[in-house]
Write a structure and sequence with these properties.
Blueprint lengths: L17 H28 L16 E4 L14 E4 L16 E4 L3 E4 L6 H9 L30 H7 L28 H25 L5 E3 L4 E3 L6 H5 L1 H7 L2 H12 L10 E2 H19 L2 H16 L13 E3 L4 E3 L10 E2 H4 L3 H11 L3 H15 L10 E2 L6 E2 L9 H14 L2 H17 L1 E3 L5 E3 L1 E2 L5 E2 L1 E3 L5 H10 L5 H15 L11 E4 L5 E4 L4 E2 L4 H13 L2 H17 L1 E2 L2 E2 L2 E2 L7 E2 L5 H14 L11 E3 L5 E3 L13
Parallel strand pairs: 4-19
Antiparallel strand pairs: 1-2, 3-4, 5-6, 7-8, 8-9, 10-11, 11-12, 13-14, 15-16, 17-18, 18-19, 20-23, 21-22, 23-24, 25-26
Length: 646
């Protein structure tokens, strides 16, 4: 960057004759013009000669951030421009010049802070309309509209290739074009080493609990760095969600503290806008599990009280039986979402991911009303299932018809998980048939492979265009595919699971060792991370799948990859204040977001603990985990059926 001082514009010239002043003025003017011409020549005429960070993919198109005045918002449409390949991106205000940072030659990250994701998608796929997810707890999606028509003439040649349809690839010719670290390991870890790992993970749980107790006792969510809590349910969610993890880890003192809190829970003192799906999987699920573990009536009483409140709220009294999304705990009345910009339709994953919990409540109480209510919602969805057996993410509560994007990520993921798990739990044939049909369509329509053999699950937008992005949430799928084979699904499900899990593990090959929220693939099937997605909530999906794959295959690499993930959490997400969600995870200095989701304690640490433990603890033929990692016993005979493969 040139800094030009023009003589005569300040006190840099001495007072003297007009002749001297004129010389200085002319020299200054000449210098200024020369400098501007030089900058113009470098930037506009010959900008490829600038020192750049080259993309490994020669065809990649980059959306960059212009330098802007402070009064222009960061996401302003005027702040976006399109440049040809290998053009340098301006450093941010902190001087960070990691314009395109490579992760072991296969993952790229674009430096596009707070840029509208739709602009990036238009540049990469021309017609692709990005739906951005802001899913702190429930994967809620905020769809942003960008009405500005971008000038695409300067990149027309690049976009010609990007707009061509890509054929899906199920199994690459060589699924091991390169190997992940530890993939060849056949060394069994000693029991002493595994015990050390379990103790370390238990210490992580204790540190998290200690900080929560110190800073946020009784609140739903911990903010460890500022040492305070925040409210979502108004019920002490972190306490409830952590119960069975502490039970499995033998944390008796902490469990007693939690038990004393649970006895005094008053649902009517809860929040006004509580998502029915979230409170079902986290609170109802936790209480049902703890009753099965302990037979303590307190837990079942709390489960029944909550179940009755949800049934009596009127949530299920819609014309279709598809429940409304939210409940006001203080009044016990259900309603549609009230948040600004929220869709007034229900989400597919929410209305179809309450069945395991309601089924279990019916099994324990012998009261059919819980199962009947949740069954009606599921039956309505199945009655309106598309021909491809892949419902879209938005559900009309009056008709049960789905619309919008087809994704196994946010708002769609656990529908497929619960198809399988309802089959396992109840032995009902309809769930088996629908699950198998859905997986076949996933294989036919959504499975793609990168040029280096990374198998990923794409999305189909409402416009029918394919979006080559994959949420970390999709990493539940390898575990579900593998689990299905234990209960009678075809063997190729396991083969596909072992392909997709490699992509999920690859997501962790960032500088921090933490996975981003979303990955994308460009036209050359190159994996990259957008700056907007460069954060980690310490999600559990990958370690959940690794746990199941380890149990089923006994391949040491799955347990070692899980330990690598835990080690990265220890290295990058831990401080004296405990653990925190992280951002800027592919930099040398990742930043703490300063909050901790309850699922880190309920799921992530639990699965990491179990994968290093003995297999006779919660065997997968006898227990099915709900989507919040709360395990229920498999008692299909109690539902009047027998799962012959269970």
């Amino acid at each position: 960057m040139y800094v030009i001082n023009v003589p005569g514009s300040n006190n840099t010239t001495k007072k003297g004759s007009k002749w001297h002043n004129k010389i200085y003025w002319n020299l200054g003017l000449f210098s200024a013009i020369f400098g501007l011409l030089t900058i113009y020549f470098i930037v506009v005429i010959n900008r490829e000669e600038l020192p750049v960070h080259h993309s490994h993919n020669e065809d990649i198109l980059i959306v960059v951030k212009e330098e802007r005045p402070d009064d222009i918002p960061a996401n302003s449409e005027n702040n976006i421009r399109l440049l040809p390949k290998d053009t340098i991106i301006n450093p941010d205000k902190n001087g960070d010049r990691r314009d395109i940072a490579s992760i072991d030659g296969d993952v790229e990250i674009l430096n596009e802070p707070v840029i509208d994701d739709k602009a990036l998608e238009e540049a990469i796929a021309e017609v692709e309309h990005k739906e951005t997810y802001s899913d702190g707890e429930n994967g809620a999606e905020d769809k942003k509209e960008d009405k500005k028509e971008h000038n695409m003439e300067s990149v027309k040649g690049n976009l010609a290739e990007l707009s061509k349809p890509w054929p899906p690839v199920v199994v690459p010719d060589d699924p091991h074009l390169y190997k992940l670290p530890g993939e060849d390991t056949n060394v069994s870890t000693s029991r002493a080493e595994l015990d050390m790992r379990m103790n370390s993970i238990r210490d992580s749980m204790r540190l998290s609990w200690k900080r929560y107790k110190q800073c946020a006792w009784g609140d739903d969510k911990l903010h460890p760095d500022s040492c305070h809590g925040s409210t979502w349910f108004g019920l002490g969610l972190t306490i409830i969600d952590s119960l069975d993890t502490m039970f499995l880890m033998g944390m008796k003192e902490e469990l007693l503290e939690a038990y004393n809190f649970v006895q005094d829970i008053d649902y009517k003192k809860g929040a006004k806008n509580v998502n029915i799906f979230e409170i079902t999987i986290r609170v109802l699920g936790a209480f049902l599990t703890m009753f099965n573990f302990t037979k303590d009536q307190i837990y079942l009483n709390k489960a029944v009280e909550l179940g009755d409140m949800l049934i009596d709220s009127g949530a299920f009294k819609t014309s279709s039986g598809v429940p409304l999304s939210d409940i006001d705990l203080s009044t016990g009345v259900s309603h549609r979402p009230t948040c600004p910009g929220c869709s007034k339709m229900s989400s597919l994953s929410e209305v179809t991911t309450i069945q395991l919990e309601f089924n279990e409540l019916t099994r324990l109480t012998k009261d059919p009303k819980y199962k009947e209510s949740s069954d009606r919602a599921m039956s309505t969805i199945l009655q309106h299932i598309p021909e491809d057996h892949l419902p879209r993410i938005y559900v009309n509560v009056n008709s049960g018809v789905t619309s919008g994007t087809l994704t196994l990520g946010a708002r769609g993921d656990s529908y497929y998980e619960y198809l399988l798990k309802q089959w396992i739990q109840t032995g009902e044939q309809r769930y088996q048939e629908e699950y198998l049909a859905a997986v076949q369509s996933i294989k036919d329509k959504l499975v793609f492979s990168s040029r280096r053999g990374l198998t990923y699950i794409a999305e189909i937008l409402e416009s029918k265009k394919i979006s080559h992005k994959m949420d970390h949430l999709v990493c539940f799928l390898p575990g579900s595919l593998a689990l299905g084979t234990l209960h009678g699904a075809p063997s190729w499900h396991l083969e596909l699971a072992e392909q997709v899990i490699r992509t999920c593990v690859e997501m962790y090959r960032t500088k921090s060792g933490l996975a981003p929220e979303i990955i994308k693939f460009d036209s050359a099937s190159k994996l990259f991370i957008s700056r907007n997605d460069e954060f980690s909530l310490l999600r559990p999906e990958t370690v959940e799948s690794l746990f199941i794959l380890w149990r089923l295959t006994k391949k040491p690499m799955y347990r070692e990859w899980a330990w690598d993930i835990y080690s990265s959490i220890e290295r990058s997400a831990k401080s004296d204040n405990g653990y925190s969600s992280m951002e800027r995870i592919n930099t040398d200095r990742p930043r703490r977001k300063g909050d901790l989701e309850s699922f880190f304690l309920a799921e992530t640490l639990k699965y990491l603990y179990l994968i290093n433990g003995p297999d006779d603890v919660l065997p997968l033929k006898r227990y099915v985990f709900n989507t919040e990692a709360h395990p229920f016993p498999i008692r299909s005979a109690d539902f009047g059926r027998t799962n012959e493969n269970g």
